[in-house]
Amino acid sequence: MSWRPTYRSSKFRNVYGKVANREHCYDGIPITKNVHDNHFCAVNSKFLAVVTESAGGGSFIVIPVSQSGRLDSHYPKVCGHQGNVLDIKWNPFFENIIASCSEDTSVRVWEIPEGGLRRNMTEAVLELYGHSRRVGLIEWHPTSSGILFSAGYDYKILIWNLEIGEPVKMIDCHTDVILSMSFNTDGSLLATSCKDKKLRVIEPRSGAVLQQASCKNHRVNRVVFLGNMKRLLTTGVSRWNTRQIALWDQEDLSMSIVEEDIDGLSGLLFPFYDADTHMLYLAGKGDGNIRYFEITTEKPYLQYLMEFRSPAPQKGLGVMPKHGLDVGACEVFRFYKLVTLKGLIEPISMIVPRRSDTYQEDIYPMTAGTEPALSASEWLSGINRDPVLMSLKDGYHRPNQLVFKAPVKEKKSVVVNGIDLLENVPPRTENELLRMFFRQQDELRRLKEELTTKDVRIRQLELELNNLKNVSPNNV
């Protein structure tokens, strides 16, 4: 495509991408070969989590961010799922808490110990069952500490209250698989893209669809809210099968504000938006490049800035939160690029070139911090609040004093012959079904043997009784 050469003054006009040195990369990681369209990677200021290839069930590894270099082949994993892990997300307020979803229809919440794993982790803090088919997407609420959203292949979105460990709302307005979810700044609106070629803006607490667009000329794949600009940005495919981005007014989805063709490649385009700098990053699955734009409220709305190029194709990308960036190096964004063929994860820093070593207030405004603005019960009652902001001027050294507490449920049990009947829920995967079948076969065999021995014992007692009856008349 030919970009408009019009000159526009911008402080981000010369942003460039810098790949970390090899010793600061993460090598020897068995990255999953799953073809599900997701990032398979999640990052925060403490840990890097990556979904891995595993035989039987699903697993992911959690590495401290400071522990770069080659990974031991026997490094411990989080391996509690019975099916492939499809998505992982760190809690934005508790940096040791991570959620995962899987083909086994479950959503699980894990607590990673300080310093990382020392042995395989199989017990989750919470196991959440509510979907009837595999779960492909999860998202944490941006301002509430205990609200988690999950989207499954049963075309439903469940809202989980982690304070009680139960689903509190089901959104069932979709008629096909949900492809992506995105929240506005205060979490009062949810935008979704769906395989039924519709873009929706939903009020999540009531489940009401506020706006809906039938995208005929622009098949939507991914959607993202653009901060407080009251705009949505979608990536998708045009009617001529070229990759395309479109800008929408969140209060009127009848027609897109602007559509821009990108190229003719077939890989899915992942959008990443930085609300502090108003920069949009586009990374294609299977591409080696990352394009970036600046978004404005006036025409031309989308201003192309630059392109980062790399020969290695990316399977997915993790993004470091703002408080984990290197402020002294004028780093405004950091990707963690998954290179499956090499088993490698490369950090890519997006840097604004500046000569001064002092703090650059114009590129680091107050940003969303690690303190929740609401509890789960407050948000469910209808309260909305903007994120609690923090400054990056003195670096990020203040630890979060909040502690995640999982709900404690009274466990009732009905034990028969050592088997807890309430614990044996219906199988969710083929492997689990086979295990349960063989276990039941063993139990039937044991019961038959027990019945046979009791029959023999009964016959013996009957014979002894008859002998006693025969002996008694003779004695008389």
Low-confidence stretches: 411-417, 419-424
Distance between termini? 117 Å
Radius of gyration: 28 Å
* SS summary, helix count: 2
Average pLDDT level: 86
**Helix and strand composition category:** mainly beta
Q: Quaternary arrangement of the chains shown?
A: single chain
User: Helicity range of the residues?
Assistant: 10-25%
**Shape verdict:** elongated
Let me know the number of strands: 34
Would you kindly provide a brief summary of this structure?
The protein has helices at residues 376-380, 430-475; strands spanning 16-19, 26-27, 41-43, 47-52, 58-64, 69-70, 78-81, 85-90, 97-102, 106-111, 126-129, 135-140, 147-152, 157-161, 166-171, 178-183, 190-194, 198-203, 208-214, 218-225, 231-238, 243-249, 258-263, 269-274, 279-284, 290-295, 302-308, 316-319, 331-339, 344-351, 367-368, 389-390, 415-416, 419-420. With 476 residues, the chain is mostly beta strands.
Features:
38% strand, 476 residues, six-stranded mixed sheet, mainly beta, elongated
Describe the structure in your own words.
With 476 residues, the protein is mainly β. 11% of the residues lie in helices and 38% in strands. The chain contains 2 helices and 34 strands. The strands form 9 sheets. Strands 1, 2, 6, 28, 29 and 30 form a 6-stranded mixed sheet that branches. A 4-stranded antiparallel sheet has the order 3-4-5-7, with no helix packed on it. Strands 8-9-10-11 form a 4-stranded antiparallel sheet, with no helix packed on it. The longest helix has 46 residues. It is elongated, with a radius of gyration of 28 Å. About 3% of the residues have low confidence.
